[in-house]
Design a protein that fits this description.
CATH class: Alpha Beta
Number of domains: 1
Largest sheet: 7 strands, mixed
CATH architecture: 3-Layer(aba) Sandwich
CATH superfamily: Vaccinia Virus protein VP39
Structural class: alpha/beta
Strand order of the largest sheet: 3-2-1-4-5-7-6
CATH topology: Rossmann fold
Strand content: 15-25%
Shape: globular
Helix content: 10-25%
Order of helices and strands: HEHEEEHEHHEHE
Length: about 240
């Protein structure tokens, strides 16, 4: 199957709050619960929350001294274009991006920039909307095509894993969360899908990936010198036969 190019001409506005999404508070709680065990293992000095959804996600067990948000839209601690990440190489201990990559013009470049700013063994936490979820069908409704999250460009978890592998990331945890059709008018967010998700987790409306940046040092391989042939120093005439 031919994959569409990830790069687009222009970016698309990403959601600026969980309330913009159908059952957004429930989605936020489900994702927070899924990421809690992995985030409890993240520690260090500097933690960047990329995008407005990441800024609002609650992570009570996170052990990082300094947190800040970064996004192109107003309201973030640092307002920046994610393709031109304003951080030096190897200065961040962890980066979290939620529901943002699928709205970027060049997601490859964004991931490269985030990777560049991470220290060795730093954590990258990603969460995106699942293109194989039944919630995608809701986006075909004419009134939903230009709403969040359906106006974004969906990427599968396997495709993101391939991109991260090229950047020398090791996947340490991943999964699917929040099975829902994203019908705003339903009382129960997971109606009809909660039971199915127990046996087929891929119906979750979102997936998450927790990865660590690995740097493999180059080891100098020393070539062994060939052993010189032993030459008898005695003249041929004086050798004992």
């Amino acid at each position: 199957m031919m994959l569409m190019p990830a790069r687009r001409i222009t970016s698309t506005p990403a959601p600026t709050s969980w309330s913009q999404l159908p059952h957004g508070e429930w989605l936020q709680a489900e994702l927070s619960k899924a990421l809690a065990p992995s985030c409890a293992k993240v520690f260090g000095y500097h933690f960047a929350r990329v995008g407005q959804l990441a800024k609002a996600l609650e992570l009570p067990d996170l052990r990082v001294q300094h947190e800040f948000s970064a996004a192109l839209t107003a309201g973030a601690d640092i307002q920046t274009d994610l393709e031109y990440w304003p951080f030096a190489e190897g200065v961040l201990d962890a980066v979290m991006m939620i529901g943002q990559l699928e709205f970027e013009r060049d997601p490859h470049q964004v991931l490269r920039e985030l990777s560049r700013s991470l220290i060795a063994d730093g954590h990258l936490i990603l969460a995106s909307f699942n293109p194989f979820s039944p919630a995608v069908l809701t986006g075909f409704w004419p009134s939903n095509t230009k709403k969040a999250p359906w106006r974004g460009r969906y990427f599968s978890k396997a495709r993101i894993n391939d991109w991260l592998a090229l950047l020398n990331f090791e996947i340490i945890d991943s999964g699917y969360v929040a099975p829902t059709m994203m019908f705003a008018k339903t009382n129960s967010p997971s109606v009809g899908l909660g039971h199915i998700a127990r046996y087929l987790p891929q119906v979750g409306s979102m997936y998450y990936i927790v990865a660590r940046k690995r740097e493999f040092p180059l080891t100098v391989v020393r070539h062994k010198q060939r052993a010189k042939p032993r030459v008898n120093a005695l003249p041929v005439a004086n050798r004992v036969k």
